[in-house]
Model the fold of this input.
Amino acid sequence: MLVVMNAHATAADVATVADRIRQLGMDPHVIPGATRTAIGITGNRGSEGRDTLMMMPGVEEVIRVTAPYKLVSRETKAEASRFPVANTHIGGGFTLIAGPCAVENESMVIESARFLTERGVKLMRGGAYKPRTSPYSFQGLGQEGLQYLARAKQETGIGIVTEVLDIESVDRVEEVADVLQVGTRNMQNYALLRRLSQARTPVLLKRGMAAMLEEWLMAAEYIVSGGNRQVILCERGVRTFADHTRNTLDLSIVPVVKHLSHLPIVVDPSHGTGKAEYVPSMSLAALAAGADGLLIEVHPNPSQALSDGAQSLDFDSFIRLYEALRPIATAMNVELL
Ligand code: PEP
Ligand code: MN
Done:
């Protein structure tokens, strides 16, 4: 259920309704809006308590939310979400997140951070903990990698997006990260999602490689229902019978997510295609499709990369892509962030 407060409701009215919801044995989630506040209710059985709440001061209406993902649905919150991340924001613009697949050493991270900041990019990606298909592949530098990311941030002011693989490392990663990335393999790791619902840092939730839209939104619901509303969805391609690209980048999910959910969605054309030459066209398409940004792999020397070199743009290609995005952003009246 969703309680919609009227435009004149006071903060005290909202608090009283939230208390009443708790007394009824349900959980209130206050959702501030531009003109009025709503209170999402979870833990309810059907419409129990609806009549009581309807009669309370400041309440405009109490409606049933039909979607199984309650708090992330557009039914619950009609306005698209946007929130600050480092010194920029996500939602209501087109936010670029770029950087290497993995943190390989200190100098390549600093070099990448300098390059990106000079071009106005405010968020850098880079994994210190890497989920690799083979146990023999480079697993990331772990704690040492986090230190290099911290140094890059300190030197350039760039915000850090980095993956968190398990519950044990959340605190450590959160010390450095401005956004905690949950990889495709962990989208349904519910214990990790619950832990991240308690985090103060925004979470970038990648789509599981075989996840239906509803499963993905339910995964986001785990994080939001526990109290962390700052979730960014990331489409990174799914498994299909097609093998001309590494994954099948499902750009058609962008407008559907926008229709069903208020959460921002970014697109990862690097894992989506697996080939650097196809990254620019899919990036332009993501912008045109209405995505809120990109997560792109960029490496100072892709041929030497320890992971995902084939899909990483070199610096010159990234500059060309940035210039190609500009006129589309202008035509769409969207700010490049
Ligand atoms: C990554 O972003 O480098 C990564 C491991 O992505 P995914 O979880 O989408 O495979
Ligand atoms: Mn990668």
